[in-house]
Amino acid sequence: MCSRTTIAMLACSAVAVSACGSSATGATTPRPPAPVNLTVFIDNSRVSVSPTIVGAGPVEFIITNQATQAESVAILPSGASAGRPLASTAPINPEATAQITVDFSSPGKYSVATGGGPGSSSGIRAASIHIGAKRASSDNQLLQP
pLDDT per residue over 70-114, tens digit each? Predict the structure, then answer.
């Protein structure tokens, strides 16, 4: 003994539930590439980076200072666009670590330098990294947010 109002309410509920989660745009926006970790080692004579070649996208620099004095690190574009750092750290004490993240949007060569850049007075030789073509989306990778 169902009344007509009960049947009407069930029909309306079914239509409302079936519309949930739909969107007018269709496809979703792909996720950015998963971040890549690069290790940066500083000693009294040079900066070392590993790996030195990665694709464009977010890159996290994990820096350790093994020099005898505090050093700051700057990520700089090489060549004609050199000058203003993409990112930099505060001074890192000896035997301490720091992290910075840079989202590289275009391929090219970049420098990882101490102090004010390649011509700094610290005498520590800068490292060079090469950023290649953009990495693939992280849509199909497990354990991604």
Answer: 999 999 998 655 568 999 999 999 999 999 999 998 899 999 999
Q: Which residue has the tokens 């009960």?
A: 6
DSSP string spanning 34-100?
PPEEEEEEE-SSBEEEESSEEEEEEEEEEEEE-SSS-B-EEEEE-GGG-SS-SEE-PPBPTTEEEEE
The answer to whether 65 touches 93, Cβ cutoff 8 Å, is: yes
Whole-angstrom distance, CA of residue 78 vs CA of residue 132:
14
CB-CB contact of 112 with 129 (8 Å): yes
How far is the C-alpha of 41 from the C-alpha of 43, rounded, in Å?
7
Eight-state DSSP code of residue 130: E
Locus of tokens 């610290």:
122
Q: Model's pTM, two decimal places?
A: 0.72
Peptide bond into 51 cis (omega under 30): yes
